[in-house]
């Protein structure tokens, strides 16, 4: 059996305060990075490529294309921030998708 290797703080409703709870390193790693998946799903849901098809390959391709665009936009935001651009000068996701589509066409 795995031994707890680390501790995390959690709120205890009965005590009404934060307490230290033992946890495995894997759980701590998952909790640290699970927001990225949720964020990607949220952005894909907002601007999804709608292709009606019965073929699962077409649906998979459009989903992978959506994920690629989201990852490219996140990378664009990260690089722009590192270069010192202000938040108002960084393109929003809808504008990024439009510019990408214009460039590819």
TrEMBL record:
One Pfam family here: DDE_Tnp_1_7
Limits of the PiggyBac transposable element-derived protein domain: 14-73
GO process terms (BP): DNA repair
GO molecular function, one term: methylated-DNA-[protein]-cysteine S-methyltransferase activity
PANTHER family in alphabetical order: DDE_TNP_1_7 DOMAIN-CONTAINING PROTEIN, PIGGYBAC TRANSPOSABLE ELEMENT-DERIVED PROTEIN 3-LIKE
Name of protein: PiggyBac transposable element-derived protein 4
Organism placement in taxonomy: Eukaryota, Metazoa, Ecdysozoa, Arthropoda, Chelicerata
């Amino acid at each position: 059996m795995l031994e707890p290797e680390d501790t995390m703080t959690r709120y205890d409703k009965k005590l009404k305060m934060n307490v230290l709870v033992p946890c495995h390193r894997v759980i701590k790693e998952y909790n640290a990075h699970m927001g990225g998946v949720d964020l990607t799903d949220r952005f894909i849901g907002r601007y999804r490529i709608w292709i009606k098809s019965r073929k699962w390959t077409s649906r998979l391709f459009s989903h992978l294309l959506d994920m690629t665009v989201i990852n490219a936009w996140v990378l664009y935001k990260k690089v722009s921030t590192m270069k010192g651009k202000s938040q108002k000068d960084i393109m929003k996701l809808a504008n990024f998708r439009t510019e990408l589509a214009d460039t590819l066409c």
